[in-house]
Amino acid sequence: MLKVTSVNVNGLRAAAKKGYLPWLAATDADVVCLQEVRAEPEQLTAESRHPEGWHTVYEPARAEGAKGRAGVAMLTRREPDAVRTGFGVAEFADSGRYLEVDLPGVTVASLYLPAGQVGTERQEQKERFMASFLPYLTELRARAAADGREVLVCGDWNIAHREADLKNWRNNRKNSGFLPEERAWLDRVLDPADGGYVDVVRALHPDQEGPYSWWSYRGRAFDNDTGWRIDYHLATPGLAARALKAEVERAPSHPERWSDHAPVSVVYGL
Predict the structure, then answer these.
(1) Catalytic-labelled residue, pool 94, 156, 165, 231
(2) Average pLDDT, the chain
(3) pLDDT confidence band for 67 (50 / 70 / 90)
(4) Site annotation (Important for catalytic activity): which residues (predicted)?
């Protein structure tokens, strides 16, 4: 079995003070993918930086004006066979948004796709990222297949794909994260003739609303489960077919949250 968990920690230093470390100590995951770490490794406490029992890899944002933002990381029980950062596009080389490791038979990646805002440079950046990332995903899948490997890309994709992935979808049709062109891009990622990946949680829960993985801190979004499903496990078909169960580890109550996202965990039979 391989259990993989993905979670946007919304700042690892803050999460560590709110409950992330007890959660990590209790998890039985084999791999944990983190997004929005927002810190250089040396800025973390020793307990957060190198927790006992884990091999850790960090890819912080290093670009001018981006430090202290974004940042991805991966924790693995087994030492990775190889580590790669970025996806070969100069604009995003130091953005702290993509990291992948090779484990026996599978490449696992942690992705933090940019959030956008309609009518701003942030949205244009998000669109450039998507345009350059899809060819890389296709290439990664082909390269892994040639090596007899599977691929799993986990992370905060910042797009709700279907109406079932967003509680208040009617009022968000013109907002970044649920724009028609963003959803169409995810269609391509999941098209067997294009990207060729499978949305693992949706495949296991085809008729469920959600399960949501992000709730705004504003109002009573969490209490009312007015959420978004934007944290995905996207896998090559061979690995997706071996997914046994999926769970969004939603906190029991609002005060017990240590991020505005919840960990998304999937167990794969290898």
Answers:
(1) 156
(2) 96
(3) confident
(4) 231
Average pLDDT over residues 233-254: 97
pLDDT digits (tens, 9 = 90+) for 214-239: 999 988 999 999 999 999 999 999 99
Does residue 68 register a pLDDT over 90? no
How is residue 185 written in tokens?
């891009």
Extract the tokens encoding 131.
């345009």
Is 260 part of any known ligand binding site? yes
Query: Is 150 annotated as a binding-site member?
Result: no
Task: Catalytic residue, from 98, 112, 197, 212: name it.
Answer: 112
**Cα radius of gyration rounded to whole Å, the chain:** 17
Helix (H, G, I), strand (E, B) or coil at 28: coil
What is the residue-wise DSSP string for 115-153?
A: P--TTSHHHHHHHHHHHHHHHHHHHHHHHHHHTT-EEEE
Residue 66 has a pLDDT of 74
112 is catalytic: yes
Catalytic: which of 58, 98, 165, 261?
261
* Spatial separation of the C-alpha atoms in residues 122 and 130, rounded to whole Å: 12
8 marked ligand binding residue: yes
Contact status, residue 236 vs residue 151, Cβ threshold 8 Å: yes
Annotated binding residue at 102? no
Tell me: pLDDT of 46 over 90. yes
What is the set of domains in the chain, with CATH numbers?
Answer: 2-268 (3.60.10.10)
Per-residue pLDDT, averaged over 88-99, amounts to: 95
Nearest to 87 by CA among 78, 75, 96: 96
Q: Is 197 a catalytic site residue?
A: no
User: Is there a catalytic annotation at residue 261?
Assistant: yes
